[in-house]
Amino acid sequence: MKRKGYLYENIYDFNNIKEAYNEVCRNTNNKRRVSRFLEYKCIYITRIHNILKNKAYKPGTPNVFTIYEPKERRIVSQNMQDKVVNHLVARHILYPAILPCLLDVNVASRKGLGTSEGLRLAQEFHRKCKIKYGSYYILKCDISKFFASIDHNILKEKLRKKIKDNDALKIVFDIIDSEKEGLGIRCYD
Known about the structure:
Helix content: 40-55%
Shape: globular
Distance between the termini: 38 Å
Number of strands: 3
Strand order of the largest sheet: 1-2-3
Number of domains: 1
């Protein structure tokens, strides 16, 4: 597979920033935080554009906390600007580079797919297995602390094989390295 290049320019396009900005505001549950962010929309969009265009982005300090329901999880809550930049990086750098490599049955975080498509695929697999095998077993498991166990160096090496744009790699690596170990589970509070 060919490595993707010329990805960085897409993240400081005004229309892409505005779209990511609106999506973050729509998906953030903390409406007090969103109201201030919406009040100064033009200023924030221009600031994000200038930071990204000048390649001066540094991830801010996140708010880290633990939830215990349904099980213990470490949650990382970012400021609004970091959320917008993460959306831009995901949509315009990571998705174009990684989505062509994914199996069609992977429905997580993919546009137009989700829980309903996952359920449809599960029912289809169930039907096919029932016809072919009669009775069968399914292993249900959860990998404990999966995101916390991700090795930064291995992840970076895999991304280098998919992305050839050095500016895009730099911003992705800065975001990865903003966590001391593993990757934090992000939330939109």
